[in-house]
Specification:
Elements (H helix, E strand, L loop, with lengths): L6 H8 L4 E2 L4 E2 L12 H4 L10 E4 L5 E5 L4 E4 L6 E3 H6 L8
């Protein structure tokens, strides 16, 4: 967060759909997404969070696919997880494809 901008000012600026919270500028000629981050700030940034892909297995549960941790995590219960190696060796019948 910008040290020179209080929450009230930030809230006011976020009413403008062209305001980027990453670079704290109004971007007139660059697209700004629904999270108030412009494409210039998104481009090439490894620090920006991204949504994980979700798949539904034959057991009816939906899991996030986390390639970094090499596991599937239940979208409702993150403690319910399946390692890729376990899936490959033992639970191959759970996949829909």
């Amino acid at each position: 967060m910008n040290l020179y901008m209080d929450k009230k000012e930030l809230k006011k600026r976020c009413k403008n759909p062209k305001f980027c919270i990453a670079c704290f500028r109004v971007r007139r000629h660059v697209k700004v997404d629904e999270h108030h981050v412009c494409l210039d700030c998104r481009k090439g940034s490894t620090g920006m969070p991204r949504r994980l892909r979700a798949i539904t297995l034959k057991n009816g549960k939906t899991y996030f696919v986390d390639d970094r941790l090499r596991e599937l995590r239940n979208i409702h219960n993150p403690c319910d997880r399946i390692d890729f190696e376990d899936l490959r060796l033992h639970k191959i019948d759970l996949l829909n494809w």
